[in-house]
Amino acid sequence: MRWFGVNNSNSNMIAISRTVPELRPSSPEHIPELLRQHNTPLVMRGLIKHWPAVQRSASVTEACAYLRQFYQDSTVTVFRADASQKGRYFYNENLSGFNYAQSRERLDSLLDELQQASNTDAPGIYVGSTTIERCLPGFLAHNPLDFGQPEALASIWLGNQSRIAAHYDVPDNLACVVAGTRRFTLFPPEQIANLYIGPLDLTPAGQAISLVDFHHPDEERFPKFKYALEQAMTATLAPGDALFIPSMWWHHVEGLDAFNVLVNYWWRNTPAWMGPPINALLHAMLAIRELPAAQRDAWRAQFEHYVFADQSAQHQHIPESARGVLQALDDNSARQLRSQLLNRLNR
């Protein structure tokens, strides 16, 4: 069934009226303060328009030639999909596998192929999340962006037309469009229940994804998706534009042109000793999810008390010297807590 509100004039994409707030920062030095002020998405128009890579992006031939000058023989992971998939990288029909093939290939050969596959009916070619310094050493030095996160991981994504299902990332994300046009559809983290998330243990790229086809939503199969749409925002980015995607925000990403390049930066403003939150989620599924309802409610109260409540006032009744792991964690106490956890898991 086709969903109400489908915008037939725009690649069958669902019509969403809310757009991501945007501004034009006067210089990259202002970005750290902007990001501190925002915990919601933000478009920064023209942020990287000065990059040589962006200035060469109007021509596919020139853009590919510019990338080739940094290439030094490494291979990249490539997803290939039949033209019938229309750029959607997804599961197969019974969710036992995927609708694309995956391989390791030379980047220069792929650039040659993308130059020749200039029509929108070509088979899908997609290179996702490849560390720039490994595959294109020197690119970042020639296309710098100092935005206050020197440890950010910079990755490149390129290919022809693509549709990547809604997913979240744990790190904060600054996505910068180098070539082509990108459309993002974003949802707050709490919309997880309305996005119909797929398996946790078989995923296209490590993160669970929404099973809703945003071009052809099925109202009968996904009836609560309409509530997610009420909270959705969209952003369409041209070369030189950037989008800040906060941690845990769901985002559906489309490369709209026959040649698309995006550079993104991931970072976490958390101490290095903190473990991945997904580990706690998986262990909670193992230890709590199948308990009787009354016990689950009791553990919900425990988590609220020890994890989610304001800890600064939660344990004032205990002498500071006796608080142990209830104190604010640091590298040393985190190491002790991890040791306790490992001992318990190994019993």
TrEMBL record:
It comes from Permianibacter aggregans. This is Cupin-like protein. InterPro entries: Cupin_8, JmjC_dom, RmlC-like_jellyroll. PROSITE patterns: JMJC. Residues 125-282 form the JmjC domain. It comes from the Bacteria. Gene3D superfamilies: Jelly Rolls (2.60.120.10).
